[in-house]
Amino acid sequence: MKRILYGTLSILALAVLWFGYYALSPLLRIVALDEPVPDQAQIATHTETDTAVETEGKREMFAYVVGTAGHSATGTVRVLEAEGKKYVRYEDFKTINGPDLYVYLAKDLEAKEYLDLGVIRATEGNVNYEIPEGIDLTQYQYVLTWCKQFGVLFNYADISEIR
Predict the structure, then answer these.
(1) pTM of this prediction?
(2) Which residues does residue 64 pair with via DSSP β-bridges, in sequence order?
């Protein structure tokens, strides 16, 4: 009887350790990337906004990255166009890692209607995500960092003013 009890407890302990490692280890991994601004980038401009900066006579538009409960994040997002391609560019970005994270263009914060831009490539730095050709950016209000596995929003930026 004791053998069965100890065996069961051992299996349970191993399962708890495995789940703990699986759930927590991504949080401890930092992936840094510093991609350059795409060549010949044309930056979305606007005349009046709180989220604009003056650069070489142009007002460059950006949106702040907003973290969610338990998923802190900082940085900015810009929408760029270079050589006929469009990009979402994270700058000075920092977030915690997690399992199965993706970057979405989305119409809502619940990722009910979204366009998948791919797996998150870095948790820190400056990162470009190419937007597929023919996408109408006016249809998407947000850029999301989304955990597919658990259906959880990690952070977002409201790009409605910078498209």
Answers:
(1) 0.75
(2) 76
